From TrEMBL:
InterPro entries: Chemoreceptor_zinc-bind_dom, Diguanylate_Cyclase, GGDEF_dom, Nucleotide_cyclase, Rev_trsase/Diguanyl_cyclase. Residues 161-291 form the GGDEF domain. The keyword Nucleotidyltransferase applies. Its EC number is 2.7.7.65. It catalyses: 2 GTP = 3',3'-c-di-GMP + 2 diphosphate. This is diguanylate cyclase. Keywords: Nucleotidyltransferase, Transferase. The keyword Transferase applies. Pfam families: CZB (PF13682), GGDEF (PF00990). It comes from the Bacteria.
Amino acid sequence: MDSLSNQQVQKVILELDQALSSHEQWYKNLQRVLISHTAPEPSDLKNDAHLHCDFGQWYTSPHVQFLQENPLFISLGKAHEKMHRRARHLIQRISDGLPILVRDWDPFDDSIVKMRVKIQALREEFAAVVQNRDPLTEAKTRARLLTELCEQQALVQRGKQLCVIAMVDLDHFKRINDEYGHAAGDIVLVSTVKQLKSHLRAYDRIYRYGGEEFIICMPSTSVEQSREVIERMRVAIAAQHFDFGKAHVTASFGVSVLRASRTVEESIHCADKAMYRAKTAGRNRVELDPE
Ligand SMILES: Nc1nc2c(ncn2[C@@H]2O[C@H](COP(=O)(O)OP(=O)(O)OP(=O)(O)O)[C@@H](O)[C@H]2O)c(=O)[nH]1
């Protein structure tokens, strides 16, 4: 989900809301069939009924296939299929003039509840993605930074992996705002995060630490490997062109690693110190934490 833009995430949330409401409509019709003995939807009697309702159509549509490995999405699909199987059995009994037994109704009712809960949980998962992002740049928030770096630190402490962090600070950013206006400054921030993201792997993270300061987290990477990537980021930032004017934007980088022997805050501080060395050494450069 991290690779999706806020707009894409909002679109999925809207679709989930629509899927939930069409599912409720389907349930209402089913109740009519079961209680008032109105004619059932022919598709509800098919073995693959779960593929024919509006929810099933959404669930199998190509544009949500990126969710195929999401555990909640998978279990929602299973709950939905099971619910249709149970509904089919109930419709069948009514069509055969038989009463609905409690032992058939209860599991069906249970699967209806489970499905609603899972849709809601998936919706919340998506909503949290947006909530945990800075609205301007869509980098993760500083609040997430500490939580997620502590998780990485726990892996480092258990000897499971290395984790590099880099502090990125735009150079003389105030001048951009002063010369071209705050809106231009915003464009630079958004574009810079896009550049940084384009060099990251799926499991790397970028956080907005302050106004024009960002932290990159690169798990399972050595300092040597990450340094090459960060160097490419530095070059990409300096090569940006903007429609609003001839602004030359550069950034200074301070690289550090999470260590079992120090706290996350201390590692961030070391990255910060390295970044300040990059500033004092002339900016537009990458410095490593010597510790
Ligand atoms: N446009 C815009 N500007 C911001 C935002 N957040 C912070 N800033 C500006 O970022 C600027 C940061 O300025 P300084 O801290 O002086 O740093 P700098 O000019 O980049 O100088 P050095 O870091 O020393 O290279 C300030 O002018 C802030 O107003 C934002 O969301 N949008």
